[in-house]
Structure formats: C-alpha cells, structure tokens
Amino acid sequence: MPNAHDPDGRTPDDDAVLDRLAALRTADLPVRGGRTMAYVYDSGLAGLDELAARAQAAFAGVNGLDMTVFPSVVALENDVVGRAAALLGGGPATAGTFTSGGTESCLLAVLTAREYARSTAGVTRPEIVLPVTAHPAFHKAALLFGLTPVTVPVDPLTFRVRAADMEAALTGRTALAVVSAPSYAHGVVDPVAEVAAVAAARGVLCHVDACIGGWYLGHRRLAGDIAPPPAFDLGVPGVTSLSVDLHKYAYTPKGASVLLFRDTELRRHGWFAHASWPGYPVVNPTLQGTRSAGPLAAAWAVLQRVGPGGYTELARRVHRATGRLVEGVGRIEGLRVLGAPEASLVAVASADPGLDPFVVADEMRPRGWYLQPQPAAAGSPANLHLTVTAAVASDERIDELLAELAAAVTRARAHGPAAVDPAMVELAAALDPDTLGPAEVALALEFAGVAADGALPERMAPVLAVLQALPPRLTERLLPEVVSRLYRASGAAGAD
C-alpha cells in the first residue's frame, strides 16, 4: 500500500513519521498544563515524563505473559503492589495484581467475587449491589460475567449511598457489594466502614473503588496539616478488595493500576489457568495474555522518583487547590457545587434556569479549558466535572480558572440554554432501542445533531441536551452508533 507521504510507496524517514504524529496531535486537547480537567493527570514535575518514557522503552519488549522467562516482571510488580498495599491498609497477607487500568481492575474484582461466591456458597445466579454513582465498569463487568446489577439510590444532597439501603439490597445471591472512594461524578466518599460492616455481617465481599482517588487520599492522610479523608481502605474491617490507579494521582503513564485483595486465597479465584492443550501451560492473573512490561516499568520508575514524601506534598497542594476552587465557584452567580467534595473532583451545576452548564463548557473550550459535561441522571442534575491535578494546584492557576469560568458564565447566560424540541423528544422516546433499524438510527442521530459522516459539531451543548432528554436505554443504543461513525478503516491517519 503506497505511503501517504510518498505516492511511489517509498518508506518515509523517521522525521516524516514523527512529523505526521505531531500533526495528528494538534487536534487533541493538551495532556499537560492542567487545563484538560478530565482523562489526563499531570504532576507538573519537570523530567518525570522523560524518566517514564525511558523506563517504558527499556521494558517495551518484555512480555508479562510468562514470569518464569522474565523474572524482572515479578520483581517490579511485587515492589509496585507492595507500595500500594503499604499505603492503603494492607497487611502481611495482602495480595495484589498489576493491571492495565481501572476498568480491568474492577472487572477482575467482580470476576473474583463471582467465582468466590460460586465455590464457597454455591451461588449460581450472582448479583452485584452498587450505588447508582458507581463507575460503569462494574456494569460492564456484570454484563461480561453474567451477574445481575442491583443499583441503590444515593442521598440526593450528599450523593453518598446509605449503608441501610445497601444492606436492604443484599440477598443470598449477592456476590459483591461496591462502594466508591470517591465516586467519580461528585468526588464524595461513600460510607465505606458502614457498608463493609453490613456486608461482612452477611458474609458478602466488599470492594472499594478507589481507582481515581486512592493514591491521592492515601497520601493526603500522611500530611499532618490538612484534614484526613474518611476511612476507606483495606484497613477497614470488612473491606476485601480495593482498586487504585497509578496512572491517575501517582502520575504514571497510562496503563497502570493495582487491584488489592485481603489475601492470596481470595485473589486466586480470579486467576485463569489452562493445561489441557498441547501447548505451553497458561496462567493469567489479568484479562490479558501477552502484556508489555513497559507500563509496569514506567510506573515503578515514577514511584521511585516521586516517593512518599513527594506524593504527600502533591496531595497537600491538590487538597488546598480543590478547596480554593470550591470556594471560588460558590462566589460565581448562577453556579453551585454538588455535594461536599472530599477528594479532588468537583461537580459544578447551575443554580439559574437560564444558565446551561453545557453551554458554559462550550464557552470554556475555545479558551483552552476542557470541563467535562455530565448529563442529568439518577437525581443528579446536569453539571460539569473538574478534576484537580497537581499541575493546576496553585493559587495563580485556580484564580485563572475561576476568572475564565466567571466570564464563560456571562457569555453562556447571554447565549441561552441549548433548546430541545419536545415533540421530537416525544417521538424519539417512543422508539424501541432493541428494534432500531439503520434508517431509524440515522434519523435519531440527525435529531441529536450528529452528521452522517460522524463529524461532531464544534458546540456540543445541543447534542448533550438531546441525549440527556432521551430515555437512557435509547441513549445507550445510540452512543455506539456515534462512535462507530468515527472509526473507519480508511487509512486517514496516514493521509496528508
């Protein structure tokens, strides 16, 4: 196939390849500087990215599939998991696994709980009990592994689940109870100790999803001059597993998470082994088979470089910046913070019917700031999610953000909320998501403002307003259609 840079098909030189990659990145949001307040995590520390890149390159070809051939994988993983366990309430019996990210850690926690319930209690139709604020990864796990999700409402003011409601949802079929530390949407910590206690009394495993906040909360606890977080980790009686991502507040490259278990006996229920074939014996502690040791080496290097003292200082800065942000948002007319954030995540909603938070996001983006829109759901109003990382954790940067936000509110109020045609919403709501044909999908996407070629409009507020107004099952049916239009095997990345 001819190369896009050379119609004669000659191989381009290294500079041409790298130039093309750089050109593709110009359309992306920045991953450094703190202005992209979702998806990416920036420590702001000089030289950290370069160290991680060198470590990752050194281990890129090392295959974690067979630890007997590559013992360096065992050494690195034991060290990384040991550091996580020491920080997050683990003891001598604690076991863990290094995974590719939070979703895989949550999937493995659910898989392990299913197998444990099956082998120890004979549960054949398992359920997973979780707050409506739990991460969708647990619903994905339930779908993949055949569990029935039982969702529990949260307090409409605090957005924390109530232990009594979780207890009422537990049955003899419950394989796992889930709580968040913190929940992604609102940055609040569920009552881990209370839920873990009622789960333990019923003989149910309890998993703490600390993927986004565990490393930050754990080190914040070490800082003696700021408020410690609520109890949330393996040191809490009844907590049997915990997931924590390193590529979030440990500021490692993507592809680094740790799943901790109370002991090796529990962990073994999630491992896969197969010897009934003529090839090599297979044992997988993760969902992957072949897995590069590059992310593991990069994570190890970053943990070594920053160290407990460094992470504690970063946590201190993030904590103070988050407080300053929450206070500042409260002074902007028309905005309010949902709940009382206990971590580094802030949900900002409108206190004025004439102010659309999605329009505010559209106004912020051309100024170089990405605030993540969160549609209304399960009693939570439409809002904007802000993840505070160390790169934005200074008085000057928070003040800059607040000034930009106040100006965006003024412009958004003048623009007015995104309008949705009620008649079209009523028509769309009558559609059956399970029987939609191509023509009906195309019509629904056109109504939502998605072009036939998959191109999204510059202003997303109208699209989000429509998706928010549709029944959730219809929205879930349409979202894959939107994404599928973006991914086409056209070789576009190589085109000029």
TrEMBL record:
Its cofactor is pyridoxal 5'-phosphate. Keywords: Lyase, Pyridoxal phosphate. InterPro entries: GrpII_AminoAcid_Decarb, PyrdxlP-dep_de-COase, PyrdxlP-dep_Trfase, PyrdxlP-dep_Trfase_major, PyrdxlP-dep_Trfase_small. It comes from the Bacteria. It holds the Pfam family Pyridoxal_deC. Belongs to the group II decarboxylase family. Sphingosine-1-phosphate lyase subfamily. This is Pyridoxal phosphate-dependent decarboxylase family protein. It comes from Streptomyces polygonati. The lineage of its organism: Bacteria, Bacillati, Actinomycetota, Actinomycetes, Kitasatosporales.
